[in-house]
Write a structure and sequence with these properties.
The chain is an alpha/beta fold. It folds into 2 domains: about 270 residues, Spore Coat Polysaccharide Biosynthesis Protein SpsA, Chain A; about 80 residues, no CATH class. The chain is built from 11 helices and 18 strands. The strands form 4 sheets. A 10-stranded mixed β-sheet has the order 3-2-1-4-10-6-11-8-7-9, sandwiched between helices. Strands 13-15-17-18 form a 4-stranded mixed β-sheet, covered by helices on one side. A hairpin with a 4-residue loop joins strand 17 and strand 18. Helix 3 crosses helix 6, helix 3 crosses helix 7 and helix 6 crosses helix 7. The model has no long low-confidence stretch (mean pLDDT about 95).
Length: about 350
Amino acid sequence: MYAVIMAGGAGTRLWPISREARPKQLHALVTNKPMIRETVDRLVPLVSLEDVFVITSAAHRAQVCELLADVPSENIVGEPFPLGTMLAVGLAAVMVAKRDPQATMLVAWSDSHISEPENYFASLLLASRACQVADGVIIGVKPTFPATGYGYILMGDEVVELHPERVYWIDRFIEKPDLETAKRFVRRWGYLWNPGISVWRVDKLLGLYKRLRPRDYEALMAVQPYLNTPEQNDAIARELGSLEKIAIDYAIYEKAERLAVVPADLGWSDIGTWASLKDALENNCGTNYVRGEHVGLFTENCLVLGHDRLIATLGVSDLVIVDAGDCILVAHRDRSQEVKDLVELLRKCGKEQYL
């Protein structure tokens, strides 16, 4: 199996730690390892380091190479501009296909937290078998709360060829439902979160591109001869620059007819907000999680991240307090989705030095 790690996200909801110069996947947030390092280490029993590919921003490639010094540098591709996930996954697919046209390819994300690695490992092994039957396989996660920021998968019939293993055809994808719909999904069997973790036979995946996105397929194949050559970046810019930058969910997943899903309990979170980070961490100060210098009275259910400077709190609850050295964020945890809007306000106010 080959592994492709998508590491191009900006992580604006985790400002002020996640910045344009160093986004969240390059930080140690849940453990003492940067998230991208955790992602690769989690796969090592299944994938050799020589078969790991990373798609990241050109601006962050040097940092990724430093954090993943044991991954061949030629396997770490810096996008000259944001490709969107459809083109980024397609680019990785032609890279893998150049080595082995019938390889099995895992796509994972550099900023996911998984607290049940053994279940993750088992689900990937099952998905690697299932993708020989289906055109592709998504790892689905049973929802634990009515999330409105995640996409969902509705499971269909069982894939009978794999019985008694729990693999199901995907009936349809549902994007980011409203709260009442999400509550209904949590109560009913058959709806799963879509974390975007997927497993493919690379020839089948490229076959989907050829059928569903023929222009993109031709451009990706035009890049393939230049991969791992000095002309690689120029070829990517030349062939892919004018194409639509679109999510793979819309371009491929929702139009494919024979995708399957493996339900799994991964203890998964995308650590997309400060609230989700608080949920992933084990409280270490009453009902609070504290990192850095802090003294508090009557302080409950807060996330406090600091450094050498003391943070003192009194009579507060459900707050996120993040001291990044040059600026401080104080937000209610229920509004942590809106930190991205605060980032846009900073940009409009001419405060780019804090971004």
